[in-house]
Amino acid sequence: MMRMSRKLSLVSLMILMVVLIGTEEVVQLNALSLCNMTEDDLMACKPAVTQPNPEDPSDQCCEALSKADLTCLCSYKDSMFLPSLGIDPTLAMQLPAKCNLTPPATC
């Protein structure tokens, strides 16, 4: 039973990566990019969205978030993608307010 669950998880992850790569939202010039945020931008925000002791978002994080596609980021709130990166989706959805940004109404 456990073996089947592992295989299903691996297949799901592979499908997610194929979809993301296919939409060109993740891979651009061999660097991670997600919703107009570079890998450096994402790493600047990671301390603010990681349990158990999240930090306040840095100025660098808020600057990056101000240029991000917040509607796109919101689309990941219920996916397994964020937790697979060590990101707490609830904390991630709180970032715009903490950075004095207006989150999308549908988020």
TrEMBL record:
GO terms for biological process: systemic acquired resistance. Keywords: Signal. Residues 1-23 form the signal peptide. GO terms for molecular function: fatty acid binding. Residues 35-107 form the Bifunctional inhibitor/plant lipid transfer protein/seed storage helical domain. InterPro entries: Bifun_inhib/LTP/seed_sf, Bifunc_inhib/LTP/seed_store, DIR1-like, NsLTP-like. CDD domains: nsLTP_like. This is Bifunctional inhibitor/plant lipid transfer protein/seed storage helical domain-containing protein. The lineage of its organism: Eukaryota, Viridiplantae, Streptophyta, Embryophyta, Tracheophyta.
